[in-house]
Amino acid sequence: MAAAPVAAQTVVVSEEPEAVSLTVYRGEKYGGQAIDPNWPTGYALVTETRTLTIPVGESVIRFEGVAEGMFPESAIVTGLPKGVKEKNRDARLLSPLGLVDAYLKRQVIITRTERATGKTREFPAMITSAPGGAVILQTSDGYEALHCTGLPERMAFAQIPEKLSAKPTLSVITQSDKPVTAKVTLTYMAAGFDWEANYIAQVQNRGSDGKGKVDLFAWLTLANGGNQSFTNANTMAIAGKPNRENNGPQVKPTGGSLELKCWPNQRTHEVPYSLGYFPAPPPPPPAPAAYMDEESDSIVVTAQRMRGEYLASYSPVAVVVAEQENLGDLKLYRIPEPVTVNAKGQKQVAMLVKPGAAFTHHYSASVENYGAQSEPMTLMLRGKNTTDKGLGLPMPQGQVMVFENSEYGPLLTGETTLKDRAVGEDVEIAVGTSVDVRMKVTPQSEKADNQRWEIKVTNARNTPVNIEVEIPYELRGKSKAVTKISGVPTWKTTVAGNDSATLSYDIKLERD
């Protein structure tokens, strides 16, 4: 008795989701560095809703347009009649590099133009290898490297290989006893995302006593390093560090551009070549403005001298502000309306608007970083993250730009980074060094059990300044001028305008 034939699988293609949610987690940033725009180091939880028409029997469901950095082992599909029998991540993308890789040991057609006559000639060739920076062809004349003859040429393929996908795709195999239309939810983790806070601190006034007000504004900056956009996504960002195990390196899709190099006789300074059958990549976008009206049809830039009264504030006007909520010990920032996070792009939404926050100004230094040569001290802004001081909310890490008013309007005076700050903590912002307020540290004497040093601070400004100098050593004796701040002995005093101040201190020595 003959065996019954195996029924062929029906392929069902879902080109894009009808609804999507995006929750972005921060990546590791060392030394306060900003987001890497090429491949952000964070990750995201993506939830997609798609409506599928599933036939009777066994079928292959292709979820096209998933995130490029998808972790396939994390994918969960719900809503199918009988669940998922098998799933596969299709990571080979249709691209110049993907085509060459798929056509190894296969025939292609080379079209070459003679410079002298302008005539074109077509001939077959086989791709024998494609190491980094070269495509090796075998022709009737022997072996040669593509685009290394000095003549204009292009390479054509007979057809698109079946195993190449135009978009990153997750395929699952499922079964159904009858035709059904199902609303399916696909949830997965994906690399290539990140977020950070970008603060704008505008100093409104600085009193002679060091007290002042700062208008503090922050953008929630989301980064998408993949080639897939997320349109009208319900978007959230998570602050904190959830425990996450490293399951090995993430495999990125094989698609990409093809950069050809001719060595040793290349004479075009290693200029990457874009194959003629694909358009050249677009130029990099211009730097984004702090705020742009998406409805505007044009942008007009003018330059003129603007007095302070005409440019009272550099802080943008917030139209939509992310709402902060608690998620266990983590902080969740929810954007209250859907937003589009474009491929290879960034999205900014206001997350903090705190005008008139109370800050003090002082000049800071540590004796460890100074010697007998006079060096500038660092101007610091310090506030208290409490409601009565104009703040009182969690402040995620991020970049800070400080502006001060001038006759020409607010001007940039410093740029630094801010670490995560919880409610109740001090918020310190390093504005920059000042050539007017300088310090030097010189040795005075040494005994068997101690050394004597002298700190001298000079103030060339016409107004008094407050200073704080850390002395991170065990000191001998006590001084009313030295107090402990965060456990570190610190000299706090006020230096009058066009004056100086000195402090002598003794360090305990431990002899062997």
TrEMBL record:
It comes from Sphingorhabdus lacus. It comes from the Bacteria. This is DUF4139 domain-containing protein. The lineage of its organism: Bacteria, Pseudomonadati, Pseudomonadota, Alphaproteobacteria, Sphingomonadales.
